[in-house]
Amino acid sequence: MKKLVSLMLVVVFATQMFACNKISGKKYTYYYTNTNKDELIAKEVVINSNDNEEIINKLIEKMSKKSRNKEEVVIKPDYISNPTIYITDNLVTLDYDKSYYDYDSYNEVLYRAAMVKEITAIDGIDGVRFMVDGSPLVKNGKEIPIMMRGDLVDDTDDDMQPIEWSNVTLFYANKSGDKLIRCQRTLPHNSNTSIEKLIVESLITGPSQSGYYRTIPSDVRLLSLSVNDGICYVNFSEEFITEMVNAKSEIPIYSLTNSLCCVDEIRAVKILVDGDSSKLYRESISLDTVFEFKDDLVSN
Length: 300
What we know:
By secondary structure, the protein is an alpha+beta fold. It folds into 2 domains: 26-161, no CATH class; 164-297, no CATH class. The protein has helices at residues 2-21, 52-64, 105-120, 195-205, 239-242, 250-261; strands at 26-33, 40-47, 84-88, 91-96, 127-132, 135-136, 138-139, 142-143, 147-148, 163-173, 180-190, 222-228, 231-236, 268-273, 280-281, 285-286. Strands 3, 4, 5, 6 and 9 form a 5-stranded mixed sheet that branches. Helix 4 (195-205) packs antiparallel against helix 6.
């Protein structure tokens, strides 16, 4: 009888020890974006781990998996590799390969914000540093500093500056390339980035929704942009005239012009190529003029 009691006590003690050592699951948040790619969608997952690197890897794994809900879209495209993770004290370093620089600007803002929100919600983690091939991530010619959760404004962040969400009107081509289709978007951008620059970069990036077609070649680079006396001066690289899209000659010109002229302070657009406005576009349209909103090209 004494042996039986002793055995029972050992079992109870062992059970209690197991319960004390067992890692209880904790809820963590990861993110998708919506179909318009203009906001974050929070999801929860229970992770049974006290190891922060393991938790981060599981969150990255969850946010990389396609959702069953068609309204929830994976933020990071497959061609962007997952980072190598380093943790030092309360700082997490995410080191990506050079494919990260293929990320388009406004979706990269959402992804970076999601990563900072996810990781800094983990106990003991205060900041996130983004690296590419061992060097600090550079955006718009500036190194991205360590990002803290407190730096996030309106649930996103970019370059340690407050993020703004702006309603813009973009004009893309229709399928036949002979008309413009109006597209309303709400886009995130660094507060240092002007609306007009956001519009031009969005046109270069191209439409993300079906039924809209590109008007500016993806190889085009925006060299400079300024607004003076109601005229927006847009200086493109030479690809603007050497590369082509499947649209009539007027469509790219007025895709840009109509989109920019929807900004209150802009009434006309002047296009330059490598600083030169004397060039011909498709050998038929002189750039040595200013262009104004053209309504008859817009499909009703």
